[in-house]
Amino acid sequence: MATNIDIFSTFQNSLFPLTARPLQIVLAYSGGLDSHVLLHLLSRYKELYPQHDYLAVHVHHGLSDNADAWLAHCQLTAAALDINLIAEKVVLNVGSRESLEAKARTARYEVIAKHLNGESLLLLGQHLDDQLETFLLQLKRGAGVKGLSAMAANMPFALQKNGQIVRPLLTQPQQALVDYATQANLSWVEDESNNDASYDRNFLRHQIIPSLKQRWPNIAHTVHRSAELCAEQQALADEIAELDLIRCQQPFSGLKISELVKLSKIRRNNVIRFWLTLQFLPMPSRHHLDKLWQEVVHAAADANPQLSWQAGEFRRYQGVLYNQQKHAQLKDFVITLKHTQNQVIPLPDNIGLLHLQSEPIDALQTQSRKNDEIATDEAVNAYHIGMFIKKPLDNEEVTIRFRGEGKCHPIGRSGSRSMKKLYQEYQIAPWLRDRIPLVYYDEQLVCAIGLWVCKGYAEQEGLHWYITR
Question: What is the pTM of this model?
Fold first, then answer.
């Protein structure tokens, strides 16, 4: 039987290296056994390290007739353990082809993300038996090493820039949590849906895994080790993909086919998957990747090939591969700047962040560099190293727009050209043209961020503009 000291030591050793300075520690608290044990451990941790900001978040899905009672239980328990609790109700609208579990999980994460402030740790109560279930579910789906990595003990939280997901008890079997709860006289809620074998996870938990453990008692530990090895292989694949992406990425969200064809099929598929991961998109099947290469990349030179899949439409334009998605209409969207001092401007429809720096910058930090010299994070996150334009006059209004019309004379060109012609020359696909931020002084176009500066507006000591995703 595990002791309170044993499991608390595991918890403490997991958190301590991540909490060297004061930060926010948030627990996803359902009221079940796993999260209740975690709440109790967190309360003990708070007594030792009171400098942190502690919070528990309970999400009321309304899926059970007992949901209100669970909420009341969580409120009383958190108060007794001196942990601040926030509870929120969500309404799930599940489509015919959507998983209720997946929908509820997404809703939980979105609610919790709203309460994370800056650098935060989000604690989840998954344990070793959950890891075994996740691995088997991924195996059933035919997942590769990314899926078979199952759950990581620590990982970035995609919905919060500086947030990190932590699973402090991932190496502990569920029986250790049961023993701890029994010794500490804890009471917790039981979700009746956990006994519904129509859910794949419950089917594994109640009908398959007991037989596996009876035959191989250490299977949860050995599967966890396999998941860690898969995670190492995935990390290696990602490192290779980062290097390949530097070579293949076109500045405006596409991949250069001329560089992709130089890679082996395995390496090519790897960088395409990595490219889609950075856009927070699901992974295409191997079948779709094969069709992508045959029907889009290798289509006739004068064709306009398209391949629909679950997260968009693969298309080819001027030798560049794109994944086109539905975008908002931005032709009438205008951002008016109140000043031209240092600032970060959120752009609409998830285009990214527009950075404006008004102070002189060391030229070494901003000069254009060859592709093989560009740092990986810049290649992944930045559309362009940046551009300088002269500052506006005091009486000139500065706006950011997304629909360029008429003509423009970029620096270095012999004359003016229409915006349509310029976009073609800069290889900007038609569906991306209304997503290029344009800087205007009054009604005069000054620059297209990441593409060109109009004649008469370049100035090395002027305003510095660049975009990050």
Answer: 0.76
